[in-house]
Amino acid sequence: MTPDAIFQVAYGFTAAKTLLACSELGMFEALAESTLTSEELADRMGVPERSASLLANAMVALGFVELADGGYRNSPVSEKFLSGTTQADLRPMLRFMNRITYPQWGELEVAARTGERSTVDYPTEVYSTGMEAINAGTAAALTAVYDFAPHHRVLDVGGGTGSFLTAIIHRHPHIHGTLFERPEVVTLARPGVDLVAGDYLVDPLPSGHDAVILANVAHHLSETQTVQLLENVRSSCSSDARLLLIDFWTDPTHTQPMIAALTGAQFLLSSEVGRLHSADEMTGWLGRAGWTFDRHVPLNGATSLIVAQAA
Ligand SMILES: C[S@@+](CC[C@H](N)C(=O)[O-])C[C@H]1O[C@@H](n2cnc3c(N)ncnc32)[C@H](O)[C@@H]1O
Asked: Cα(93) to centroid of ligand 1, in Å?
């Protein structure tokens, strides 16, 4: 037996933080479609040469930058997702992780001891655009896995910028989308959907929808709050409605999928009551709130979809 696994995980944060810093400092934009020496790279990034070469060499070691012609260039994955030259832009996700997640995780033992959420302050725009980038793959998977064609009015509760609705309407232009979000997020919403500002734990939800999405919402809520929200959705939607629940639904032990279990500590930092819920738990809560479990299907990464129909 060796301690290699401990070293690998203990140093793991250095890989994450170096990637976040390189993106924040504009390394991958500087290297877009170019090969640069460390001096040229330093100049474009606005940092000393020592910083540029230490950071770029770490990115070479991780496979995000390549050595070429005496200089550095983006690897294909960085060119596609981090250089800002394509539609598949993950820079808002890294900005979210650098400015929100990373500082929050510095408070993990405090949150674990006290049960109180993180005090890190952040702009709503960084949160919402980052969340949209993080879940872009999930939105694409949802439209591929679930057939929205029979639906007419889709409501996304806590739907962030409305990116799930936008993906659905792009594929099914006959669908009318409604986004229900907190007032400060509604102002950031994408065009093309109806906007309703409110608090999903307090305010009535917009009525008359035949499909309702709750994506990455339940993990911020307790069992009582989740059941109450499921009941509120049930009483606001049409009698033949489908409910689409997207989250890190775990196995009954809450230890798989692995990425979901690892992400679980995030809910100590972002909520006083949130936690990972298992698919079995959610199935039981659906029954208490007037819904019938229909199916559970994988989406993207550790996220999956539970479909329910009005009982
Ligand atoms: C983790 S994000 C998920 C966003 C989006 N559904 C997705 O999966 O990408 C949770 C969203 O719920 C919204 N939210 C949190 N509490 C809320 C409340 N009480 N009422 C309405 N929206 C709320 C937040 O503004 C945030 O956009």
From this structure: 16
**45 located within any domain:** yes
Is pTM, for the whole model, over 0.85? yes
**71 backbone dihedrals φ, ψ, rounded to 5°:** -145, -160
Instruction: Provide the CATH number for the domain around residue 287.
Output: 3.40.50.150
Q: Are 131 and 20 part of one and the same domain?
A: no
> Does any ligand 1 atom lie closer than 6 A to the CB of residue 217?
yes
With respect to residue 93, please indicate whether it lies within any of the assigned structural domains.
Answer: no
DSSP helix/strand/coil, 231? helix
Ligand 1 center to 139 CA (angstroms): 15
Is the same domain home to 116 and 259? Answer: yes
How buried is residue 22: exposed, middle or buried, by Cβ count under 10 Å (0-12/13-18/19+)? Answer: buried
CA of 39 from ligand 1 middle (Å) equals 43
The string of pLDDT tens digits covering residues 176-228 is 999 999 999 999 999 999 999 999 999 999 999 999 999 999 999 999 999 99
The predicted-structure confidence for 134-150, as pLDDT tens digits, reads as follows: 999 999 999 999 999 99
* 182 Cβ closer than 6 Å to some ligand 1 atom: yes
Same domain, 62 and 140: no
Asked if 62 and 123 sit in the same domain, the reply is no
Q: Establish whether residue 158 lines the binding site of ligand 1, counting it when its CB lies within 6 angstroms of any ligand atom.
A: yes
Burial class (CB in 10 A: 0-12, 13-18, 19+), 64: buried
